[in-house]
Amino acid sequence: GAGVSQSPSNKVTEKGKDVELRCDPISGHTALYWYRQSLGQGLEFLIYFQGNSAPDKSGLPSDRFSAERTGGSVSTLTIQRTQQEDSAVYLCASSLGNPGNTIYFGEGSWLTVV
Amino acid sequence: QKEVEQDPGPLSVPEGAIVSLNCTYSNSAFQYFMWYRQYSRKGPELLMYTYSSGNKEDGRFTAQVDKSSKYISLFIRDSQPSDSATYLCAMGKSNFGNEKLTFGTGTRLTIIP
Questions:
Q1: Which of A15, A18, A105, B111 would suit a FRET pair with B11, their CA atoms being 20 to 30 Å apart?
Q2: Which residues of A touch B94 (CB under 8 A)?
Q3: Whole-number average pLDDT of chain B
């Protein structure tokens, strides 16, 4: 597709279950970001991948959160033992990875933990 | 204190009015300043970006940055109902496009026909 694709678009899960969220960046984009958007909050940075460099994981809120990027393209964000406070929109974004390049966002995965 | 502060609104104005949206920030390392527009249940889309202080105009939109006051603004002229959305300011320190951005909470704007 032409844009950043995320799946699932909506996910309802029970507290304590693990969830996986997937992101397909725009073809050719080397930089990939995960952000979280909670009600009434701005976008909160989670993790950043750039090419083959070690990811910047400084925004991950706890060790229940992890992400990987396989083959420099698709990324999966995993949340283990979900808690109700994990309910949020998880947004993926990508860019060409050079200064001045636009960062394009997907439509997000809406996660509800019940 | 958050690095970036933005009034969450909501803000309602009549069609045709001039809209002013603002953010303040505390970290003087920010050099790139962006405005994103986010429609309901959609991802944010880049509207404007500026580097350092100054003004930038694009059609009905004008972005202003005052680094001395650590204050940025987005003006929308001749506002239209299609401008109804949440507007997020975002800031980067050096390599916009190659680094994490810091976002404001967003201002929800409604243009009343």
A1: A105
A2: 99
A3: 92
Which of the residues A30, A57, A103, A107 would you substitute to probe the B interface, choosing the one with the greatest number of B C-beta atoms within 10 Å?
A103
Q: Is B36 helix (H, G, I), strand (E, B) or coil?
A: strand
Question: What are the DSSP calls for B74-93, one per residue?
Answer: EEESS--GGG-EEEEEEEES
> Structural domain tally of chain A?
1
Q: Do residues A79 and A87 touch, judged by C-beta distance below 8 A?
A: no
Parent domain of A43 = 5-98+106-113
Task: Identify the segments of chain A with pLDDT beneath 50.
Answer: none
The domain containing residue B40 runs over which residues? Answer: 4-112
The whole-number average pLDDT for the span B48-64 is: 91
Please report, for the domain that includes residue A30, its CATH number.
Answer: 2.60.40.10
Sign of CA dihedral A59, A63, A65, A71: positive
Q: Which residue of A has its CA nearest to B44?
A: A105
pLDDT at B1 over 80: no
The verdict on a CB contact (< 8 Å) between B104 and A100 is: no
Residue in chain A closest to B39 (alpha carbons) equals A107
